[in-house]
Amino acid sequence: MANYVLSVDQSTQGTKALIFDEAGKMLTRADLPHKQIVNDLGWVSHDAEEICQNTLKVVRMAAEKAGIDPAHIACMGISNQRETTVAWDKTTGRPVCDAIVWQCARAADVCAEVEKTGIGELVRNRTGIPVSPYFPAAKMAWILQNVPEARTLAEKRQLCLGTVDAWLVWKLTGQYKTDYSNASRTQLFNIRTLQWDREICAAFGINADDLPIVTDSDAVFGETDLGGWIPKKIPICGVLGDSHAALFGHGCLEKGMTKATYGTGSSIMMNIGPDFAASKNGLVTSLAWKYKGQVSYVMEGNLNYTGAVITWLKDSLGLIASANETEALAEAAHAADTTCLVPAFTGLGAPYWKSDARAILWGMSRTTGKNEIVRAALDSIAFQIHDVIAAMEKDTGIRLPALRVDGGPTRNRYLMQFQSDILSRPVSCPEAEELSGIGAAMMAGLSCGSYDRSVFHTMGYTAFEPKMKNTERNIKLKTWRTAISRL
Q1: Which residues of the chain have pLDDT under 70?
Q2: CA atoms in the 13 A half-sphere facing the CB of 38
Q3: 8, 78 Cβ separation under 8 angstroms
Q4: Does residue 367 belong to any structural domain of this protein?
Q5: Considering the domain boundaries, does residue 245 fall inside one?
Q6: What domain count does the chain have?
Q7: Cβ neighbours of residue 297 under 8 Å, at least 6 residues apart?
Q8: CA-CA distance, 284 to 282, in Å (whole number)?
Q9: Distance CA 59, CA 78 (A)
Q10: What are the angstrom distances between the C-alpha of 41 and each of 38, 83, 105, 106, 131?
Q11: How does strand 427-430 pair with strand 461-464?
Q12: pTM of this prediction?
């Protein structure tokens, strides 16, 4: 009897396969990294074929690790790194160049040219996001302008332009489809009309007919035997961008429910319900998903430096040997020390948008030492997330009831308690770590009938309740805002 749900989480650093039982419990996981291709100009690329091959390998590794018969797998879900862009030949399935990773800003000149046309405000109004080289629209335009084979294929109507989810679905099933969450991050999808926007596509020099069909996130995207490994093909019936998948995995299906993912950077995302709302406070609007025939919108803020701040403490300053040390060091810091770190190493993102800002340590005194700097680094993560959530509340009029969190830094109890204190809201940290993969599995399992809504209640959480007095909290926030104002 087919009773397992398979999930593939294709992230920036590697590919994970996770297998879940009929109750939604994760049984096994396998990982494979892929090459980070960085040239002298700082361009960041991935080998799309390597990602596909790793996907086939990790699902077998995961099943073998747990002794699971592949014939008992019922369905599959995919979560993927967002915005990373692949272009391939429709007839051969071969990429015309390496995938351009979301971090890569090589298409900055494309954006400058598009802005000159005066279409920038229209793009933001229809797609929910400002013109930026980080989104696939500019990356696709760059490929068309700089890869001759792509131009030739486009002229012959034989070019596919898609994000990693569309690439994997194509390779695994032969279907050319993407889901609403990923489409909404391309900067080519009108999130009001829920269609590819031909005017915006034309502004970037892209033929909308070269883009994939946009499919409900819980639809059947196609069937796969995963390279002949499974005796009978299974449906891929849950596809989501990784941050959207984490939101779904947390069970944030209702308006106002919010999650923060703490990784190298952070994605803070609030479900704002079935109606579009534009941000006036430095955030972007996207689609969470289209699930059970209904779209949900999200408001999102992205931070460049959260977990990366801890990496900076270790690799650049040499203050710690591992991230595990930071909790005890922060707890041992001088209570009265006012040192504040603003980690604007490459500017500040949401909700400040100060691209020319540079990092500062502000408010140091004679009591400032290693412990205090480590504490300031952890505090800076919580302060930034506080400011994004404050902007969300202004934009939506929704008061956040609680924050759900995931990612490696959430294992730091000092950070989680400080996050709760500075928000003055409960913070819920799940026992499981793989929220993106869990979300994709839940979407697929619900779609194929392996799960019902009770699956959202199977995950355990540790709750952190606010303990800080309002007077102390206000003083700390004032110090942070003063530091921000010095940039």
Answers
A1: 1-2
A2: 6
A3: yes
A4: yes
A5: no
A6: 2
A7: 191, 271, 272, 273, 274, 275, 276, 277, 285, 286, 287, 288
A8: 7
A9: 12
A10: 8, 20, 10, 8, 22
A11: antiparallel
A12: 0.90
